[in-house]
Amino acid sequence: MTTENATSSIPSKRATSSSDPLISHGRHFGRTHRVFEQLLDSYPGLLERLRNGSEEEILHVGELIGKGASGARGDDTKSLKPAILDWLSQKGAAIQPPLHRNSKIDRGFNHELTGSLLCPAGLDWHDAETRENLRSGEILVCGDQWPVFLDPWCGLLRSPLADSVSGEIFSLRSTKTPKPRAPEMARLHGMNCVTAASIAYIATQCSLELNTTTDSETFYHSLLDLFEDPDESKEVDELLTWWNRQVFPTSSAAKRPISTNSAWSKIRIKRLATKNAADSNIIAPSP
């Protein structure tokens, strides 16, 4: 491919519209992918564009992908803000005191229901002093202090709430027809199984909708750190299998987790350990 042919396929800034396919792929990438190679796989021809494009054109491609990812987060936040209240109310019972559907000002530790879900594991929400200290900010909650609703191997990550949130995020939104159960949005981008990053994203969105303030970046990456720990590989495989049964029931990934003592399982653990060691060497400061 010549430079002229490759760069001519990159849209100019003036010609960019909301329908540009790079924006659509950027939206999906912002939800489910963590590494650059996965983005390249999901958008054939992108690597050639980046190799042959000018600096300005490459920066513009990055802007389009970033715009899509940012738009996805905004759309999810907007749609989940009222919907999560319906999923939290048990059997249609009204939440007392009522919570605003389109504002989070009365959520977080300010409300008994959301506060009880967000209380950090290890603290007792039923203790009056603990509740007051959380509400006043006397007790500061960091992003890696997971709330009680987020038991990594059960709790939120295997609950009807998580299933409802994933359906809201990965299904095509339409006001004209009922929302399909199949995650059509994911399939449009070649996603046929749930990833650890998508689970972390869904958990982060849940936390954001329940809380008034959340260190979402630390929260998200702390979950990914857990999912990438070789010592947790058995639990991660079982969790991914559970999720795939909910979201992609016909996928081979939904059949059963990889056997702990299988050759494939051992290869995965060794490969992940090597990758983590290489990453540590990259970010380690020079002596």
Protein described:
The protein is mainly alpha-helical and about 290 residues long. It is built from 13 helices and no strands. The longest helix has about 35 residues, at about 55-90. The chain starts with a helix and ends with a helix.
Range of helix content: 55-70%
For the largest beta-sheet, the strand count, sense and barrel status come to:
none
Strand content: under 5%
Mean pLDDT: 74
Number of strands: 0
Structural class: mainly alpha
Beginning-to-end CA distance, first to last residue: 44 Å
Note poorly predicted spans.
1-16, 172-182, 282-287
Q: Please tally the helical runs, counting DSSP H or I stretches of 4 or more residues.
A: 13
What is the string of SSEs from the N terminus onward? Answer: HHHHHHHHHHHHH
Shape: globular
Rg, Å, rounded: 21 Å
Summarize the entry for a quick read.
The protein is 56% helix and 0% strand. The protein is mainly α and 287 residues long.
Name its key features:
287 residues, mainly alpha, 13 helices, 56% helix, disordered N terminus, disordered C terminus
What's the arrangement of secondary structure elements?
Blueprint: H1 3-8, H2 21-32, H3 36-42, H4 46-52, H5 55-88, H6 112-118, H7 128-136, H8 160-170, H9 184-188, H10 196-210, H11 216-227, H12 233-247, H13 263-283
